[in-house]
Amino acid sequence: MQASDYGKRLLTFAVIADSHLNQDEWDCNSPFPVNKLANRRMRHVVRDLNRRDVAFVVHLGDLIHPVPAVKDLYAGAARRFHAQVRELKAPLYLTPGNHDIGDKPMPWAPAGSITEDYIRLWRETFGADYYSFDHQDIHMVVINSQLLNSGLPAEAEQKLWLEADLQAHADRRIFICTHYPPFLYERNEAEHYDNIAEPERAWLLDLTARYGVEGLFGGHVHNFWYLSEKGTRHYLLPSTAFVRQDYSEMFQAPPALEATEAGRDDAAKLGYFLVHVHERGHLCEMVRTWGACVAPDVPASSGPELLEPVAPARNRYAALGFDLRRSWARGVDIPPSGALDEFDRKRVRNDYPLLALWEMGVRHLRIPLQDLRDAATRQRMRDLLPLGHAFTLYSYGLPAPCDQKLILDNAALLARWEISFRGQEMKRLAAGLRELRQKLTLPVLLSRMWEHEDNRAPDGRYYHVMNHGFTMKDADSIAGMAEFEGLEGTGLVFRAMSHDDLRSLTAFAHETCAARGLPASLHLRLTGFNPAEVMRNDAWVAQRTAEALFCAADRGVTVFADTLTDIDRGYFVHNGVLDSTCNPRRAARVIGHLHAALNRGDGPMSPVETSEARGRWLWTRQGGETIALYMAGENPANAPLALPPEIFPAAAPVTVINLDNGRICPAAELRPAAAPDLYFLRAAH
């Protein structure tokens, strides 16, 4: 139940980017239909921010869509922007973007570069283009990134100011806000439309390292990336208005051509950030807006009470992790599109799975030995450890001596090591482990490869597939492992197939390993036995992962679901918790809300019990409270929830959380629909 110690939360501020407001509600000078929604989408963001407790809001630029060269449209869009943000309750700080003040200097740019006239127009319309301010113990710095490499007099002025400002506040926690990010993939990448060119990129990055800048927030790219450079965390933010569709090349499948305008209106990727500043570090939360729009004449409303998500680093009940089967740390080349880049490819990494892991509160990630062999992936692991992620390595048998040395040298990156084996190899494996564990402090877990007869489905049919992990039938085999010297203190990996009872199997894993102080993993298959069967049941995946998490929470068993992103071709075609463009499916939302719901309580959890009453109930004690996972069955139309008295006595007030949307309400107000609704309930006892 441990979580990284970030300390008490001190404050929260919001960061938004690329709102691209138009000169009129439906009048737009872009050829893309989705751009006409920008004003309505920004209006929703303002209303949403007003429902939250934020100290201030920073906008990273591209406030408006018309560029300075089109002065009448620019002025109209600016008026619209000022009118909308006038409703914002929190103080607002603005960063100039290339649509607001001109592009960075580049001869191939499709629009005009920054000029002294454009700087003057920005200052007259929006205020200072670079400045800093303080809030409590943090120092916020806003720069005009378009000035860098421009040769304009204002560039030298900004450089002198920034160096002096950072030096004067070197004892503070510093955050920098910029429109153009320094880089998208690696520090020494070539210049392209979306990054800051040399030599000023190196100058800026050297400053952030010298003064220990804690975080840097960049816009412009309309997509999410997380990078780390010499101790500074870089966050590149999505837009509130539309997605840059050239980056859709990152994904394993194309976006829906008509429904999303070839990716530009991929609404699941729109949103903004909340930055939670703690005593020791900060954590970012993505607020997805899903493209929500608010018309000008719609009055503001308070909205329902919503569950606050829990970050991986703060998750005390992080029992559910994922097997990272796809490449997750390597770059993808984005071809030149002829729109914004034409002369080279841009390399990026698909960080949307990482964003989803943050939203779900997932800490535990399972990786193959292949990942540890790769230097870039090892560095990515180092970057993610401070965010609370923990890596479990897996291999078949003991690897070659060079790989054993690699594991020993990089043990600090790993939380555990799973080794699969066949029964006839047990003696040799034990001897090898006996020698290796004289130098290895990493916990080791063993996983039995299934034999021919094990791979029969419940109907008796055999399938030519690979499975591994112990089952409840293996109690005698597990007991027999004690006779092998070298296996003392090793944990075990268990296997949960689609038909297995998760409550019983988790209890078996706990009693066999965790109750004796040994590590235990449970591999959760999100498909059936038959590799030719297509499984697209989002409701089943959501219920299965929720049940596994609830049963394993605080029981010393780490569950690894085998599918993060859809498998849309090959064997075992089935849905994961993210679709093929890495947008959250229902299960991702349920997992995030269930992790957050568990963290609203505290204390040890007792074994899970089960009941049937208009659906299935899993329930347990958490500290001084009763908690339950309710998987709704058939209920009379508009009937109140019937609480089983053996779980919730009549006198106890019960709070309910809808795990699909995170809404919180008293149980008396709940009118559950038919299956497959999922709810979390809590009451004192």
Question: Would you write up a description of this structure?
Answer:
- The chain has 15 helices and 27 strands.
- The protein has 685 residues and is α/β, with parallel strands linked by helices.
- The chain folds into 3 domains: 9-292, Metallo-dependent phosphatases (Purple Acid Phosphatase, chain A, domain 2, 4-Layer Sandwich); 321-326 and 351-598, Glycosidases (TIM Barrel); 609-684, Immunoglobulin-like (Sandwich), CATH 2.60.40.
- The strands form 5 sheets. It has an 8-stranded parallel barrel with strand order 12-15-16-17-18-19-20-21. Strands 4-5-6-7-9-8 form a 6-stranded mixed sheet, with helices on one face.
- Helix 1 (38-50) runs parallel beside helix 2 (71-85), helix 13 (502-512) packs parallel to helix 14 and helix 14 (538-552) runs parallel beside helix 15.
- It is globular and about 80 Å long.
- The mean pLDDT is 94.
The rounded distance between the terminal residues' Cα atoms is 22 Å
Tell me, what's the shape? globular
Sheet with most strands: strand arrangement: 12-15-16-17-18-19-20-21
Low-confidence stretches: none
Overall pLDDT: 94
Question: What structural class results from the helix and strand content?
Answer: alpha/beta
Helix tally? 15
Kindly give the count of domains.
Answer: 3
Percent helix range: 10-25%
The number of E-state strands comes to: 27
CATH homologous group name of the largest domain: Metallo-dependent phosphatases
Q: Describe the biggest sheet? A: 8 strands, parallel, barrel
In what range is the share of β-strand residues? 15-25%
**What is the CATH C level class of the largest domain, in words?**
Alpha Beta
CATH architecture of the largest domain: 4-Layer Sandwich
Protein name: Serine/threonine protein phosphatase
Domain Calcineurin-like phosphoesterase: 12-223
InterPro entries: Calcineurin-like_PHP (IPR004843), Metallo-depent_PP-like (IPR029052), STPP_CPPED1 (IPR051918)
Pfam families: Metallophos (PF00149)
